[in-house]
Amino acid sequence: MAKCEICGKGAHFGNNVSHSHRRSNHMWKSNIKHVTAKINGANKKIYVCTQCLKSGKVERG
């Protein structure tokens, strides 16, 4: 599973709990994109979450 290379956000794990309180495994995936970003003046493809893109932590190349 991909992780954001800026903030480290990745998949989260837990349980789905039904009305009768039976538990089953569940995985929440973060909204992560493979984008071309400008790093040290050069363009490089990295995985970035949409929150980092929206906040301006990453400059797209």
UniProtKB/TrEMBL annotation:
GO annotation, biological process: translation
InterPro entries per UniProt: Bacterial_rp_bL28, Ribosomal_bL28, Ribosomal_bL28/bL31-like_sf, Ribosomal_bL28_bact-type, Ribosomal_bL28_sf
Keyword Lipid metabolism listed: no
Presence of keyword Ribonucleoprotein: yes
Gene Ontology molecular functions: structural constituent of ribosome
Keyword annotations: Ribonucleoprotein, Ribosomal protein
Domain of life: Bacteria
A Pfam family the protein falls into: Ribosomal_L28
Any single GO CC term annotated in Swiss-Prot or TrEMBL for this entry: ribosome
Family of the protein in this entry: Belongs to the bacterial ribosomal protein bL28 family.
Protein name, UniProt field: Large ribosomal subunit protein bL28
Origin species: Porcincola intestinalis
Organism ancestry: Bacteria, Bacillati, Bacillota, Clostridia, Lachnospirales
